[in-house]
């Protein structure tokens, strides 16, 4: 059966652990030798494109990246038709889209795995890299607490659900009007996750093992950046907030970062920051995911 990866909880807790293990293989099998992976980009990305292309190369395959104007799914041709065609050429399809529903339509028609490289609803590949980074720092994820402080966006949603799958606690602090969807919180709790939701950055940071943030205005929200900067006053992860966390707490950011807005330069560039390791792990996590979806683990 074809396995797709549209949401992080498309994996069970055990499968998530397997993907993280596969991500750390030093000499992975070249399961994509002579094969390709189609990468559809409605939104550009430094990390997603480089990480995914290199993961495919490391598995012996050939990545084919396509910009929106080259494919224009659902305008030039329906998502289902594009998925059927690409399935004939490639071993897998990755898509970075605005609307999550487009990913679902691709997956319904594809006969090869479809991977969510980001949608307006979720960013599951980022969550894999987040957990891989934290596991490398701590050795064990179970029982740890990650605090997300900022916009309750797609990155936040995937992180909270991934934390639940890994047996971690999640604290989420957002300004009023920018909260994480209640359905996402319920979903994480249904998986056994312990999720605390607050509008206080200090409350979320208190006692956490890791602090995490994202930009206040994501791609496509640039026109709203001034209003958002005002709404997010007091939500900058700085030395004061880091001091409320556990000694030795880690700082994470999915990047790109705006020093002086969602994070201070002192924190981003400090020894506590694991963001560059986290960025590198986008590649390793993708490699592990593809090994799972296309290799022996998927059978």
Give structural notes.
The chain is an alpha/beta fold and 299 residues long. It folds into 2 domains: 8-123 and 281-298, Rossmann fold; 126-278, Aspartate/ornithine carbamoyltransferase (Rossmann fold, 3-Layer(aba) Sandwich), CATH 3.40.50.1370. Helices cover 42% and strands 15% of the residues. The protein contains 13 helices and 9 strands. The strands form 2 sheets. A 5-stranded parallel sheet has the order 7-6-5-8-9. It is globular and about 55 Å long. The model has no long low-confidence stretch (mean pLDDT 96).
Quick overview of this protein structure:
42% of the residues lie in helices and 15% in strands. It has helices at 13-23, 46-58, 68-71, 79-89, 100-109, 124-138, 154-165, 182-190, 201-205, 225-231, 239-244, 265-268, 275-294, and strands at 36-41, 62-67, 92-96, 114-118, 145-149, 169-173, 194-198, 210-213, 250-253.
Q: What is the average per-residue confidence, as pLDDT, rounded to a whole number?
A: 96
Shape: globular
**Order of adjacent strands in the largest pleated sheet:** 7-6-5-8-9
DSSP helix count?
A: 13
Helix- and strand-based class? alpha/beta
Please mark out the parts with pLDDT under 50 across 5 or more consecutive residues, or reply none: none
Summed up, the domain count is 2
Q: Indicate the percent of residues in helices.
A: 40-55%
Number of DSSP strand runs: 9
- Major sheet characteristics: 5 strands, parallel
How is this fold's topology laid out?
Layout: H1 13-23, E1 36-41, H2 46-58, E2 62-67, H3 68-71, H4 79-89, E3 92-96, H5 100-109, E4 114-118, H6 124-138, E5 145-149, H7 154-165, E6 169-173, H8 182-190, E7 194-198, H9 201-205, E8 210-213, H10 225-231, H11 239-244, E9 250-253, H12 265-268, H13 275-294
Parallel strand pairs: 1-2, 1-3, 3-4, 5-6, 5-8, 6-7, 8-9
